[in-house]
């Protein structure tokens, strides 16, 4: 799976060297692929089909014979003929397809159509059920004796169901359905603390609740998410200290403190000020000041902190990237700080390892990135303030979400110069760079607006996100959520397994919703 076979046929009288690099690898050094002996010899290599590759054939005297870039198909067999050109006396490289590759888009198409059919059934089934219910009520009224009336049990039950279906939920269900955890933590903090403020909960009680929830999240992440029973006895030698829930817990703690000390303010409903259009920002200026100071700290450390044997302000992956000049500089200042603090107790297989051939450990949930995680959560707090300030005015809420999305999207475009690897601050998920926060904040506002429309305005359900996340982390490796793959040549079984596990967790969440069971921390 995700591989193809490439065979080189050398019809020349000199030995050839073949090198390659991934087009997704920024300024990467060419890596040796195969050596092809002369005089009608051949050599084969298995290549990755995940990314487009640039291949280069060189003479033994380091002279490039030919170079080309191509996206190879999964399961395909390809031949490259190195021979003298018939039209000229110069050698050339000719590519041929010996075996057609698999259609990698077909499993996705079938999966999308299956999901569309399921969604259609969910939409049509309630309509059919209501039609049957209505017909039953009509038969009860029209076909029974005069002693039966509209107040009969059958009609009464139908009416109760109809009214229940139209009842508006008081809880913001979009918060339970939304999957951008960091962003939605900030939104939930604002709304939850607002509710507790109205109930008269004291500041000391809030601080106790904040501390307890933070400790629970940290322990869940430290003891469960980083450990599976299949790993054997728990050992400090391989235990990972940073983690997803650890970052969420610390982010929640900081955001909650901001809301506890500088966020519990009454909204001046009828006050007329020039800053009314931005009152959801101006009233909380101390919070904004703290976030600006934190971002200034991140910028100073990231761009100005000296790192041994690395250029100041380095934001690359190291390894073979950047022409191989900084192989041990993975993550720049962020990676250096994490390796100094945690040693080997951090993530050993970052996503950059496969492409950039890095040797240094790097944790995407490290210390420095947590600062921008707090900034991301603070954007979510802004969404919560919008919901409070414009409660009941759904159109204004959605418009404010759109305005924030546009502002953040433009900011991300400026910082990255609309490029993948360039700009003032490139979009980097592993580093949680400032441009990444702006970009994901933009899409988070758009996604929350969509979820708000679907779940709160239209009334669809969705809850127990933490339960599903922790449950899948613990049980996702076991049957019935997964099994040993028998067909490794394509994505069919992988896709089916992923859809099956997702469907099971959706069913579990739905059953818990029907039973009114909601996991709270």
TrEMBL record:
Signal peptide: none annotated. It comes from Etheostoma spectabile (orangethroat darter). The keyword Membrane applies. PANTHER family: HEPARAN-ALPHA-GLUCOSAMINIDE N-ACETYLTRANSFERASE, LD22376P. The keyword Membrane applies. It comes from the Eukaryota. Keywords: Membrane, Transmembrane, Transmembrane helix. The chain crosses the membrane at residues 108-129, 210-227, 248-264, 284-305, 397-415, 435-454, 466-483, 495-513. This is Heparan-alpha-glucosaminide N-acetyltransferase catalytic domain-containing protein. The lineage of its organism: Eukaryota, Metazoa, Chordata, Craniata, Vertebrata.
């Amino acid at each position: 799976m995700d591989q193809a076979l490439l065979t080189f046929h050398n019809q020349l009288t000199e030995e050839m060297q073949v090198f390659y690099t991934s087009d997704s690898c920024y300024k990467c050094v060419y890596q040796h692929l195969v050596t092809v002996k002369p005089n009608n010899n051949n050599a084969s290599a298995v290549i990755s089909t995940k990314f487009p590759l640039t291949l280069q054939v060189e003479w033994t005297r380091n002279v490039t014979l030919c170079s080309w870039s191509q996206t190879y198909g999964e399961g395909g067999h390809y031949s490259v003929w190195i021979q003298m050109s018939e039209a000229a006396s110069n050698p050339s490289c000719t590519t041929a397809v010996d075996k057609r590759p698999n259609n990698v888009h077909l499993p996705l198409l079938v999966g999308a159509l299956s999901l569309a059919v399921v969604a259609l059934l969910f939409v049509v089934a309630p309509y059919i059920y209501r039609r049957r219910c209505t017909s039953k009520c009509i038969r009860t009224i029209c076909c029974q004796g005069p002693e039966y009336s509209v107040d009969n049990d059958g009609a009464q039950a139908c009416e109760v169901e109809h009214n229940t279906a139209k009842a508006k939920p008081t809880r913001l269900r979009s918060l339970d359905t939304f999957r951008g955890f960091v962003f939605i933590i900030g939104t939930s903090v604002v709304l939850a603390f607002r509710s507790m403020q109205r109930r008269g909960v004291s500041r000391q009680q809030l601080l106790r609740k904040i501390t307890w929830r933070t400790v629970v999240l940290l322990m869940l992440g430290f003891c469960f998410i980083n450990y599976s029973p299949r790993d054997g006895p728990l050992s400090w030698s391989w235990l990972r200290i940073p983690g997803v829930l650890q970052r969420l817990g610390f982010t929640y703690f900081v955001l909650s403190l901001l809301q506890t000390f500088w966020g519990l303010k009454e909204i001046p409903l009828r006050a007329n000020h020039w800053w009314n259009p931005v009152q959801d920002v101006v009233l909380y200026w101390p919070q904004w000041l703290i976030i600006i100071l934190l971002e200034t700290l991140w910028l100073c450390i990231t761009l100005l902190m000296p790192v041994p044997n690395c250029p100041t302000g380095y934001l690359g992956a190291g390894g073979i990237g950047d022409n191989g000049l900084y192989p041990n500089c993975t993550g720049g200042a962020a990676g250096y700080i994490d390796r100094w603090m945690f040693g080997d107790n951090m993530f050993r297989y970052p996503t950059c390892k496969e492409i950039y051939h890095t040797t240094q450990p790097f944790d995407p949930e490290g210390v420095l990135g947590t600062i921008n995680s707090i900034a991301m959560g603070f954007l979510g707090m802004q969404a919560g303030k919008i919901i409070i300030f414009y409660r009941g005015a759904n159109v204004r809420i959605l418009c404010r979400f759109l305005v924030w999305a546009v502002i953040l999207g433009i900011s991300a475009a400026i910082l990255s110069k609309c490029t993948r690897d360039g700009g003032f601050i490139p979009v980097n998920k592993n580093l949680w760079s400032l441009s990444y926060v702006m970009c994901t904040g933009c899409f988070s506002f758009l996604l929350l607006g969509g979820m708000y429309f679907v779940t709160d305005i239209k009334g669809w359900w969705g809850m127990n996100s933490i339960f599903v996340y922790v449950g899948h982390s613990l049980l996702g490796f076991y049957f019935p959520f997964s099994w040993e793959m028998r067909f490794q040549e394509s994505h069919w079984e992988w896709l089916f397994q992923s859809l099956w596990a997702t469907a099971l967790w959706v069913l579990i969440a739905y059953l818990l919703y029907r039973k009114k069971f909601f996991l709270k921390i």
